[in-house]
Structures are given as structure tokens and as C-alpha cells.
Nudix hydrolase domain-containing protein (Gossypium mustelinum), 696 residues
Amino acid sequence: MECSCSSLLSSNSMETIYSTQFSSFKPLFDLKSIPKLTSFKGISAKACYDTCVPKKGLSSIDEQQLGAADLVYHVNGKINPSFLTRDLRILDGFDDEYGGVIVDSERLPANPNVFASMLRFSVSHWKAKEKKAIWLKLPVEKSDLVPVAVKQGFEYHHAEKGYVMLTYWLPEGPSMLPANASHQVGVGGFVVNDKNEVLVVQEKHCAPSFVGLWKIPTGFIDESEEIYAGAVREVKEETGIDTEFLEVVAFRHVHNVAFEKSDLFFICMLKPLSTRIIVDGHEIQAAKWMPLIEFVEQPFIQQDSMFKKVIDICIARLGGCYCGLSVHQLPSRFDGKISTLYYNCIDN
Amino acid sequence: MECSCSSLLSSNSMETIYSTQFSSFKPLFDLKSIPKLTSFKGISAKACYDTCVPKKGLSSIDEQQLGAADLVYHVNGKINPSFLTRDLRILDGFDDEYGGVIVDSERLPANPNVFASMLRFSVSHWKAKEKKAIWLKLPVEKSDLVPVAVKQGFEYHHAEKGYVMLTYWLPEGPSMLPANASHQVGVGGFVVNDKNEVLVVQEKHCAPSFVGLWKIPTGFIDESEEIYAGAVREVKEETGIDTEFLEVVAFRHVHNVAFEKSDLFFICMLKPLSTRIIVDGHEIQAAKWMPLIEFVEQPFIQQDSMFKKVIDICIARLGGCYCGLSVHQLPSRFDGKISTLYYNCIDN
């Protein structure tokens, strides 16, 4: 299996950037000496022509200047003006370090028919070059190209607000492409003050079973946000309380939560640095410091094995009978990133 | 912030399933007494008609039987036969428990023009009903509908191999829809036998900096797979060695690894249950039991702060000086799921 820590397709991995020889239009062949073509893999129509009567020199033709009417070729005895103007161009792209090609999203043709021809030819070309995969990122403004790519065998890989990523696995056999992100990540902040009161909230918008219950502040971490930072941020946003991250005391793993994805939820112990609550009225109905005993004795905690265990752990941590995972930033040479490592203390 | 543990849009959350009154074609109005329509929000063209001359009774019309030529209406003095045959139908959908609508992917029209009209009318209808969001899942065979939806203001939310999900946030203000999965999750198995040898592999396909290095077996967990199960599986697949999961000793968090997503990597301590190595020739170049000292002394470990710390932790765990997070399965009533909780032992 691929190494899960490698930076696949991040900007770091694009070690070889190239523009193909076809990025500005240059015909594949010298037309004056062109042999009889019976079929050309990738070209949208079979072509066989006996005479070629180019109107312009074709050693170098600028794409923008080239109009379909400018070139007239006799193909199979019929005039096919668009044949050599569009179909024999490769889409611009870059090599990745795994033998794949990343199509340049910024140089895609807008016209779906032009794109269809170029895509077909490009796929054929890259297959002949024994490339492994094609990554095709279509920005939202190029949504017309989506059905074109799908009909030529591209598969959806993932999508974000501004684009959809499609892929094409070229070799025989099952695709070896890495999967998309599979997990959402949430954090909860367990904050207890020196009066043994825990910081709790009632949410405004929540599942019916949660209405009216007092719970610890929770939420998803933001894109590229650290778990320790997300926990502190959520508590701050929901209650106005400043905190310092101490440890991840436990984490929960559950599946099929949303869109068949999984959920990792990190329960974090935070130390309060302020006392005055300011409620985020957009999300939160109310927030307060609640005596720990009263919080623990809520029926929804007492009757739920998982909630009860989590609170037991937090209380043990408060009492010094439990050690969770503290956070450390460490550089790593193999991918050049500073990453965050969560681990327990080592007894000497 | 939304509760990260709620099962949003899973099959459990579809508490109310309904078919709209428009799922089989029924005209919106009784045409004989129809008032003058000046504009109708959601209809693709303004319509105002003085006389309606239906050819057939319209109290109930089967969609398949209805052809555009069968109904002739005078609209603004002009004949518009398609006006009432297509545009006044709502797409089939279900309510979710958050005030949103989930469009039924299995009952989408195939024709993009029909879909465009229905979508426009449906959005208008749901907006009038004060719905919060529309979830539109377009299977790959309906890729023609993607640009239609995008041009009507739908945004990409996420995609998987077989579909792309688009959303439309209806109220004013920023979208409150939950984000897509943001993390890939990997596991590594640290397996040491009773001769103090660690199980290591050399990968066939890896980043250039990894070629020839001996590393612990690693890989991504599968969809809906448990971390503890994934670690055991990866070791088994790569080396043929059976193991038993003991603990998560630490985890690493890094960002911008692939497609701007983040990576969580769980280092797992596993106890070997067999000794005979069988290499997975597809992925692995070689595998062996390597003396722990020799493994630790590899330059790429010694020179890398993160790798060195991880190995130090594993060795401490072997020596009984370290306690990681062990795995427990606990039911939870609030979402009806059995979930996996990883936590340390509590000192009594």
C-alpha cells in the first residue's frame, strides 16, 4: 500500500513540470510528406487522405490565429477543414512523480467539442507514453466539460466547492490511485475551572435528541487546522472563554456518519484562562459554568455508555489518575513538513 | 458549530420521506379557471394567457403519455405547447431533519432541458417553502445534468467514484452546510517478535526518497474500516504476518498532503502471532525481521526528529515505560451507533 505520509500531488510533488510540444498548435506531421493514414488512435474520425492542400505554412501555428476555415484538406476525397485544426493537440499538463499526468486546469479549451477531441487524443497519447494516470481538475466555470470527460471514461475522484477532480487509470488492472479523504474530524473541549465547574453549552441548531441538553463545546476543525488549535477556537467561538490546550484524552471513531464517510472525534482537555462567558448567539442558545457533579448526573450522560466513559476519563485526568496524549511539533526530513505528533509522556 | 458526532444525512436521518404532489404530472392549476398569470417564479418564461384550449382532460395526466403536441395553449397570444407539460413539476425529494431537501437521484429526468426546467421550478418552490438547502446527488450516468445544475447556482460539495454531490444553500447569508471529509487516515504497524526483531518492508512503489529504506508496514485504512483492523490488515497483506492489535501509541497530524487535504497517521503497536513472512509482490519489494538496533540505527531514522521520536515511543512501550491508547467498543444512544473509543488505562 502506498505510504500514507507521502505528499502525493501536493505542490511539492510536482518535480517535473513540462509543457507538451503541442501546447501551442503544431501539427503532428509534416503534411507535405504525410503517409496515408488509415486510422489514428485518439483522433475522433478515421482519416485517410491522398492530397493535402494546406493554405498556410504549418511549421508553427498560433492556436488563437487558427480558424477552421483557414485550412482545407482533402480527406477521403472530402473536405474536412476542422480535421487537423483541433484533433491533433494534446492538453497541457505536468508529470507527477508517480508516472501520472496532471492536466493544466488553466489551459483547458472552453468549447466542449474542442475539448472532446483534444481529450481523446491526449488520452491515447499518454497511454502510448505508458503513463499511469490522468488527473483532470475541472473548475466550476468549466462544468460543460464534465459530461465530455465522463463519456470518455473518466471517473469522479473528488470535488470541492470550486472544482471537480476526475481521473483516468491507464494501465490494465485495478486503479492504484489514492482514495479521497475519508474522514471528517471534530473536537470537543472539556474545560473545568478552579471551582470544579465545567463549561457547557446548549446548541440552537442540533438534532432533535440534543435539544435542551447541556454538552461540552464541540465542532469540526477547519481545513488545515490543528486539532489543538481547533479545540481552543471552538470553545472561544461558542463561549468567549480563552483556554490553553493540555491533552487529547481520548478519541472516538465512528463510520457512516455523513455521505458514507467516517468521523474522528478528539476529546481535548483544556485549561481555562478566562471566566467571562460571551455566547455566540448564532449557534448557541446558552452557555454556563455548571457544577461538574450536576453535569455528570444528567440522564443523557448516565444512560449512555460512551458519554459516561468519556466523562469518567476526563474526571480521572483532572484527578491526576490519567495521562492522555500531549502535542509536539516535529520536523520531518522525508517530506519536508513540520507535523504535529500526539503522544504520552515516557516514564524515565 | 454543528455537533460533529451527529449522523447528518445518513440513511438514519431521513425521518420524513415524501413524494411531492408533482411526482406524477398533475398541472398546478385547473386550467379552465386559471387566472391571468403574469410571472411565475421558477418557470423558465413569463406566461400570461387569455385562453386555454386543452385537448385532453387535465385532472390527472400520466407523464409518459403526455406528449408536447397533445396540449396546445395560447400563451401571450402565441402557442406554447411545452409550457405546461414540463416546467411546473417539482423534482422528487425527501426532507432531511435539518430543514433541507434531498433530491431523489433515482427519479431524475434524463433530458437536460427537462431537468433544467424542473430544477428551476423546484428551487423556487423549496425557497418559498423556506427550505434551508438542496442536496443534489448526480450519478455518473447523469453527468449531462451537472452543467445544468451548476449554471443554476448549485455548488460542488463532494464526489465519489459513482457520483457528484451538489448543494444549494437557500437562505440569505453564508452556507451552514457541513463540509466534506477533510482527512485521509493511515496506519502503521510496529511489530516486534520475541527476538527483539522488528518487522520491516521495502516498498516497490514509493517516493524516490524512500527507495531502498526499511520501514514499518503502513497504509490507508479502507472505507468504514477500524484503525485497529486496518493496521492488522496492512501488516498481513504486506508481509503475511498475523498480529493482534495492542495500542495506538501515538498519532501524527499533517496538512496539505493530497488535494489540500490533511493526513492523520496512527502508529499502532501490534503483537505478532506468526513468524513466516510472505511478501505481497505487487506492492512490496522485500520484507524481513530486522534486529531492532539495526532498524533504529538507519540514518534516515537517526536524522529525522519525527521518525526518531516515534521509534523511541515504540521502544519505551516495549519496555513497559509507556502507555498508549487501547481500543474499546461502546454503544451510544444518541446516534444509535456502536463506536470505537481509544483511551488510556485509568489508574485506580
About this structure: The two ends of chain B are 36 Å apart (CA to CA). The longest helix of chain B spans residues 112-128. Confidence is low (pLDDT under 50) at residues 1-75, 79-86 of chain B.
